[in-house]
Design goal:
The protein has four helices and four strands. It is an alpha+beta fold. It is 38% helix and 25% strand.
């Protein structure tokens, strides 16, 4: 086995690292990012001080993840971040869903699981606002 110096090892590692960085920047070597339709719904609770209502609604939203056209689902509650003029923390539960396309989002809207969710949980919210966006 050949003995290697630390200096030679560092030089070799640096050269390999630079090569990897250069090949990552080469046009055509980067994988094209999948573009999604993003559906973000924000719910304001009828009883904002009820942790039980908030948790019931969050669990209901999580059940929507069983719908086959939803590629990803994130369910959240208000974070305890710093108070700033641009931060709205008046809501209770949010959902962010990713769909492959408009057809997948349309399927979600009429899906029996979504309709059941509305039927069983709409009594918990006072207001919902939805933001739909397509990746650019």
């Amino acid at each position: 086995m050949k003995k290697s110096s630390r200096r030679k090892f560092i030089a070799t590692a640096a050269a390999l690292g630079t090569g990897a960085a250069v090949s990552a920047m080469t046009p055509g070597s980067k994988k094209e990012k999948k573009k999604y339709l993003v559906h973000h719904a924000i719910f304001w609770l009828k009883n904002p001080s009820s942790v039980e209502d908030r948790d019931k609604l969050a669990e209901g939203v999580k059940s929507l993840g069983k719908i086959e056209t939803i590629r990803e689902l994130h369910v959240g509650i208000v974070a305890s971040t710093e108070k700033r003029d641009v931060v709205d923390n008046s809501w209770g539960v949010s959902e962010v869903m990713f769909f492959d396309d408009l057809a997948g989002q349309a399927t979600y809207q009429t899906h029996p699981i979504h309709q059941e969710f509305i039927k069983n949980h709409s009594h918990l919210w006072e207001k919902v606002i939805v933001y739909d966006a397509i990746d650019v």
